Amino acid sequence: MDLSLPRRASLKGRDFITLGDYDQEDLYFLLDTAEELKRAQARGTPHRVLEGKSLGMLFGKPSTRTRISFEAGMTQLGGHAQFYTADSLQLAHKETWVDTARAMDRYLDGISIRLYNIEPYGESRRILNTMADAAHIPVINMLDDGEHPCQVLSDVLTTREKLRTFENEKIVMSWAYSPRAKSSGVPQGWVLAASILGIDLVLAYPEGFDLDPEYMEKARRFADESGAKIEIVHDMKEAARDARIYYAKSWGSFTLTPEQVKERDEELRQWIVTDDLLDQGDKRVQFMHCLPADRNFEVTDAVIDGKRSIVYDQLENRLHAQKAILALLL
User: Fold this and answer.
1) Strand, helix or coil for residue 160
2) pTM of the predicted model, to two decimals?
3) Distance between CA 49 and CA 56 in Å, rounded?
4) How far is residue 103's CA from residue 43's CA, in Å, rounded to a whole number?
């Protein structure tokens, strides 16, 4: 399989830390490549374009889908993925992130990092940027506090497969209740992707669960260029009305204290995706969630296991989207 003749200048050597570093043509190049690689995999067509290449995967938090999909992807592309935790490296003995990056730079062809919930907010992104500055090879963000770009790219791939067009289709990214505070990386990545690609997006959440203002400001700037519309609503039923895609995920508040969130527990528990809610949507409405889902908190079993759920198609596309990232950057 020949990936050597791209539509535009090569993406080789670039970091993949934030979607905000990629323009509309870059993102469609990645999406088109993901579709091409997915077809090749389905047909059994060899596409070992990374033969002899090695990816270092550094995990600061546990993972199921991210680790498995990156390892499988590198194998299918003919390369090899190495798994590490911070405790298994000299980082455990206070070696600096810079020296760690420089060591990896001399041995590997790419570095991928999953690092979040490090205080203060934004520290994980600072570390990713530090690694990227110290290394000449690409650094890929497998999730930090601010963004989950690999997940979002695969989400957009999934919606494009299902809808075939983004025009006149209502796509909703909705908050959902969880007993624990989760990263806002997925919705923040979605507002960037939608605004860059010119996709209209409805962002639904209870008052007090606004996204990072920095991401919203970037999204507004990108939307001014692309023509995208980002609409914010604070009512699930209003968001679900005529929705073609209803994507739900919990995230934490930047402004409310844990005590304030706890005081609103009864109200917030109403933010659960049910069949009755989806009945408000388009007759072809489909449900998405990045997983793992807090079942019967964020979404009922009936929905996530039902005919309107496409969460496992969405899960599979992590593999294909990340293979596109790896193939084009490495």
Assistant:
1) helix
2) 0.95
3) 17
4) 38
